[in-house]
Write a structure and sequence with these properties.
alpha+beta, 6-stranded antiparallel sheet, two-stranded antiparallel ribbon, 9 helices, 10 strands, about 30% helix, about 20% strand, binds adenosine-5'-diphosphate
Length: about 300
């Protein structure tokens, strides 16, 4: 008899072959598990190049909505190429699984950083927010709305450079002024206009960026309550408090992003020009020790 765990493992072969590019990968260590995907470190045996292999069992993809989401994720992600977006290398399938080969982000996501550090310093926030904004600027210039920007989807490489990933809820704006009406899933930092189903666009990402910046600087999310219902109520009323210990430029930038009316939120280009970025130290790089302890600020 084999246990369920062993059975599961068998379904993800140790040697993975991509018939299209004729590449062969060896499955190495387990990296993490998401809603549907399991992620492994994989190595191209011809080039020794290491990647992240996001592997989704076809058994789990029974509903047509799930299949649709997966193919949307792939078709959007494969069209993107940017320093601050997780690189998409290739994808293929066999009878058991779908395999997505991605740039490996060895330092996990900003979620783990947040859990370990809670509130981070202003220079660190500047360092990360600048990169996140450059990534989102690229997405918006390609008419892509990510729709689920959150700490867990902001991956980190060995230089602590941010890579935006997980395009499972992303959407493409097809014509100027289009407002999306539906969203199949539950974004973490959900904007009020999604909750009220008023139609939404790029501005929902700006809202999420406000939530991300708040969470990084305060150490907890802006609308957190003990129930989702109360959290949604607060979001709709845009009811949050910023600790007065934050400096003025940070308070101002968060306030601009967390406005109930989408049309009043600034674009990414505007945010990149905000005085928050010129009002203090912008580190050229951060040491890896910042994943666990605050850098010295003297
Ligand atoms: P899902 O979309 O099913 O939620 P995720 O995208 O969250 O799956 O990925 C599942 C796990 O794999 C997470 O633990 C995440 O940290 C890890 N992961 C995903 N992409 C990468 C990557 N490019 N590099 C390193 N780890 C990754």
């Amino acid at each position: 008899m084999t246990s369920i765990k062993e059975d599961e493992k068998k379904e993800i072969p140790e040697i993975i072959h991509d018939p299209q590019t004729n590449s062969t990968y060896q499955r190495l260590r387990f990296f993490g598990k998401g809603g549907f995907a399991k992620c492994y470190e994989i190595q191209d045996i011809a080039t020794n190049q290491i990647y992240a292999g996001k592997i989704v069992s076809k058994k789990l993809m029974v509903k047509s909505s799930q299949k649709e989401k997966m193919s949307q994720e792939i078709s959007i992600h494969r069209s993107l190429q940017h320093k601050h977006v997780v690189g998409f290398h290739s994808f293929f399938e066999d009878s058991l699984n779908i395999y997505i080969v991605l740039e490996l982000c060895k330092r996990r996501s900003m979620m783990e950083l947040h859990k370990r550090r809670k509130a981070i310093t202003e220079p660190e926030t500047r360092f990360y927010m600048h990169q996140i904004l450059l990534g989102v600027q690229y997405l918006h210039s390609r008419r892509i709305i990510h729709r689920d920007l959150k700490l867990g989807n902001l991956f980190l490489d060995d230089d602590l450079h941010v890579k935006i990933g997980d395009f499972g809820l992303a959407a493409k704006i097809e014509y100027e002024g289009e407002r999306k009406r539906t969203l199949c899933g539950t974004p973490n930092y959900i904007a009020p206009e999604i909750l009220t189903r008023d139609g939404h666009s790029f501005e929902v990402d700006i809202w999420s960026l406000g939530c991300i910046m708040y969470t990084l600087m305060v150490g907890r999310p802006p609308f957190e309550t003990s129930t989702l219902r109360d959290t949604y109520k607060r979001i709709k009323q845009c009811e949050y408090r910023i600790p007065s210990s934050l400096r003025k430029p940070a308070i101002s930038m968060i306030g601009l992003q967390l406005q109930a009316k989408p049309s009043q939120r600034p674009s990414v280009d505007k945010l990149l020009q905000h005085e928050f970025f010129s009002s203090g130290i912008m580190p050229a790089a951060l040491p890896l020790s910042c994943l666990t302890t605050a850098p010295r600020t003297d």
